[in-house]
Write a structure and sequence with these properties.
- The chain is α+β, with helices and mostly antiparallel strands.
- The protein folds into two domains: 9-220, Endonuclease III, domain 1 (Orthogonal Bundle), CATH 1.10.340; 231-349, Alpha-Beta Complex (Nucleoside Triphosphate Pyrophosphohydrolase), CATH 3.90.79.
- 40% of the residues lie in helices and 13% in strands.
- The chain is globular.
- The termini are far apart.
- The protein binds iron/sulfur cluster.
- Iron/sulfur cluster binds at residues 145, 148-149, 192-193, 199-201, 204, 206-207, 210, 212-213, 218.
- Iron/sulfur cluster is lined by residues 145, 148-149, 192-193, 199-201, 204, 206-207, 210, 212-213, 218.
């Protein structure tokens, strides 16, 4: 079974015009704002994106402000969204746009694709929504809707299937409203043709065109090949507290959570004696009792099983109770709290 174009534009757009959720990035044609929203939406649910989007646009309202943003500030704005390399890539792309495109995102799909971090989906979304260019924007929602509409059993994780889907969507785009069509397809996938649950075919504007619905196979589509199992990693995390703050340090500049702040940690699940030995090796002294609990965090390819020790820093230099002295921590570590501007990934926040 293949994926083929269908005459769905008119009923889809009519449905979208009355059913679409009111969202701030749908109230604008500003290409930069649409870009920010699309990158954030690739990471999490619409409801979760709303406060991030508002905060990001308020802090960095233009491409110029993003290009100039300090990395710690940028990562603080992204804190909790995950995939921090996307935020860094946006800043790199903003610098290219400032340098080579007069500070405005190019009105050309090929030029958009040359910017760091912008792939076919994001380029298609920016081009069609902001600039009315007839470019397909095929995300997971669209792949699912299309597979069901066409009763396709092609594996949607394969690049060849995505390419075919982009060609099919390109052939369906209505002249004059490509951005509305793309957004309507995504909205249908998010609100009607649902993932991991039976689709709501009874209220779907495309029911009459849907081969998956006719063949009663829609709920079992799309076909996705199984991902490799996630790597399991044990680690011991130290939540070292003092005066309402917690000790943090910077991660390596490459690998998982590159360059982010972290709670100090060590590989494996350390028992209490090994934990105390590790603190001694760092030169950190503690005062009073400590507690232990566990936490888990799931990344795309790895799962962390964390044994967390919560401790209170001691030390002869702790004379100022309002602000802990840095000299009770190893070089390069710092005391962090909500106001200090250190971006702490969710994996570590859940340890606190
Ligand atoms: S009819 Fe059902 S399966 Fe087909 S597109 Fe609509 S919701 Fe999805």
């Amino acid at each position: 079974m293949s994926v083929y174009p269908l005459p769905i534009a008119a009923p889809l757009i009519e449905w979208y015009q009355h059913a679409a959720r009111k969202l701030p990035w749908r109230e604008t044609r500003d290409a930069y704002h649409i870009w920010v929203s699309e990158v954030m939406l690739q990471q999490t649910r619409v409801e979760a994106v709303l406060p991030y989007y508002a905060r990001f646009i308020a802090a960095l309202p233009t491409i110029a402000t993003l290009a100039e943003a300090n990395e710690d500030r940028l990562l603080k704005l992204w804190e909790g969204l995950g995939y921090y390399s996307r935020a860094r890539n946006m800043r790199r792309a903003a610098r290219v746009v400032r340098q080579s495109h007069g500070g405005v995102l190019p009105q050309d799909v090929k030029a958009l694709l040359r910017l760091p971090g912008i792939g076919p989906y994001t380029a298609g979304a920016i081009a069609s929504i902001a600039y009315n260019i007839p470019a397909p924007a095929v995300d997971g929602n669209v792949l699912r809707v299309l597979a069901r509409l066409c009763n396709s059993t092609l594996d949607i994780t394969l690049p060849a299937t995505r390419q075919l889907a982009r060609a099919a969507i390109a052939a369906m785009l209505p002249a004059g409203a490509p951005g509305t069509f793309n957004q309507a397809m995504m909205e249908l996938g998010a609100c009607v043709c649902l993932p991991n649950t039976p689709p709501l075919c009874g209220v779907c504007p495309l029911c009459a065109f849907c081969a998956g619905h006719r063949g009663s196979a829609a709920a079992s589509l799309p076909v996705k090949s199984k991902k490799a199992p996630r790597r399991q990693e044990d680690l011991t995390v130290f939540a070292i507290r003092r005066c309402g703050r917690v000790a943090v340090r910077k991660r390596d500049s490459s690998g998982l959570l590159a360059g982010m702040y972290e709670l100090p940690n060590a590989p494996g699940h350390l028992n209490e004696a090994a934990m105390l030995a590790q603190l001694a090796a760092w030169g950190v002294t503690i005062a009073g009792a400590f507690t232990r609990h566990t936490a888990k965090h799931i990344f795309t390819h790895v799962e962390w099983h964390m044994r967390v020790y919560t401790l209170h820093a001691g030390g002869a230099h702790m004379t100022d109770r309002a602000r802990p002295a840095d000299n009770v921590l190893p070089a390069g570590w710092a005391w962090a709290d909500e106001a200090s501007g250190h971006a702490l990934p969710s994996a570590f926040k859940k340890c606190l």
